[in-house]
Amino acid sequence: MAKNEIYNKLIHTTRWLQLRRQVLNAHPICQMCEAERRVSAATEVHHIVPVETAVSEREMAALMFDPHNVMALCHKHHQEVHQTLGKGGKQERRKRADARLQNFVKKFFNDEVGP
Predict the structure, then answer these.
(1) Between these two residues, 96 and 105, which has the higher pLDDT value?
(2) What is the pLDDT of residues 42-99, one digit of tens each?
(3) How far apart are CA 113 and CA 115, in angstroms?
(4) For residue 48, what are the contacts with CB-CB under 8 A and spacing of at least 6?
């Protein structure tokens, strides 16, 4: 589950639950499985452009509730997509945390390194 507080608030709204239900009713078969000529039940709704990439709550809501920014997937494909995006597992979270720390250090402390 996402760690972003705004995302967590939006994902638990009635509006999201209604959109999710609509997407799964419209696409009961995983859209990626269909493309591979396989049949698996769609059980999850994936945001194509990650909601967490937005910089404001308003932009996050726009991505969250955009019916053109979601697709119906089976659990297996949903996990694969997130792993491809670098969001899967403890090691990936650690890498992202290390990268954020390095960016912070570079931004705030590299200027202070003097002769």
Answers:
(1) 105
(2) 999 999 999 988 889 999 999 999 999 999 999 999 999 988 877 655 566 677 667 7
(3) 7
(4) 69, 70, 71
Pairing of strands 70-73, 44-47: antiparallel
Q: What is the CA radius of gyration of the chain?
A: 18
**What's the gap between Cα 49 and its chain centre?**
7
- As beta bridge partners, residue 73 has 44
Q: Name the pTM for this structure.
A: 0.72
Pair 62, 75: CB distance under 8 Å: no
Give which of 24, 5, 4 is closest to 70, Cα–Cα. 24
Q: With contact defined as beta carbons under 8 Å apart, do 81 and 33 qualify? A: no
From CA 20, how far away is CA 81, in angstroms rounded? 18
Q: How many angstroms separate the CA atoms of 20 and 70, rounded?
A: 9
| Residue 31, token pair as written in the block | 């859209």
Nearest one of 78, 85, 84 to 53, comparing CA atoms: 85
